[in-house]
Amino acid sequence: MSKQIDIARAGAHEQVAVVSFNRPDKMNALTKIMEGQLRDTFIALDRDETVRAIVLTGSGRAFCAGMDIAELEVLPPEDIRAAEWMRPYDMNRRADYQSRYSYFMGVRKPIISAINGAAAGLGLVFALYSDVRFASDKAIFSTAFAKRGLIAEHGIAWMLPRVVGPGHAADMLYSARKVSADEALAMRLVERVLPHETLLADTIAYADDLATNVSPRSIRIMKQQLGEVPFQTLAEAIALANREMFHSIQSEDFTEGVAHFVERRQARFTGA
């Protein structure tokens, strides 16, 4: 089986995993092989206690240009419901974040997309399911679906309005037009636009700061809180926060968080 996903370690203590789509000659268009390798990679990184942050990017000039058209042409309709792509990998997590591509949000570590070029169709879906999005000044975004006779796939109709608002979401979905990096920043589709030449290094530096200076336990719980919010009332969100604050105050990371601040030294968080 060809290797279509690359993994490397980065950061001061190699606690950042850099995951790269690796079909540069095809603008990293998604194949079944790549899809399976990506999910297996994320599951493995989620379970790896030496990894504290994940950077997702593309090899070559594109982030991910969507599904490979050669595979899309022969895609059987029943594939979209195939159990192999919808299987849960952790029965203790919300089912909403276990399905095809939404599993990004079930990964306990922060996922930061370094969008180095075209992010179209599924490429945009991957970016949206990431926690944070940094874009190259050469990046281009498009939903693409309407121009292929398709619909808003894989939960993007739920996710996109939450990121950019309903009007921008409708515009991007209906027109399938190309959106520049600057426009993406203006509509809050991305958090930062960075020079193309420094995008990956700057994104890794951000991820390394999270891995080094922030409690992994805090991020893990905060990511859970952010994931639960769309399904909660305010009262339920407060109840979850109060419950988790009680546990946080008893954690090793809280003890270390106070100690390193008082002693004015580098934090040594364990995630416990």
From TrEMBL:
The keyword Lipoprotein does not apply. Pfam families: ECH_1 (PF00378). The keyword GTP-binding does not apply. One of its GO terms (molecular function) is enoyl-CoA hydratase activity. The chain crosses the membrane at residues 110-129. It comes from the Bacteria. Its EC number is 4.2.1.17. Keywords: Lyase, Membrane, Transmembrane, Transmembrane helix. Belongs to the enoyl-CoA hydratase/isomerase family. PANTHER family: ENOYL-COA HYDRATASE_ISOMERASE FAMILY PROTEIN (AFU_ORTHOLOGUE AFUA_1G01890), PTHR43684. This is Enoyl-CoA hydratase. It comes from Paraburkholderia azotifigens.
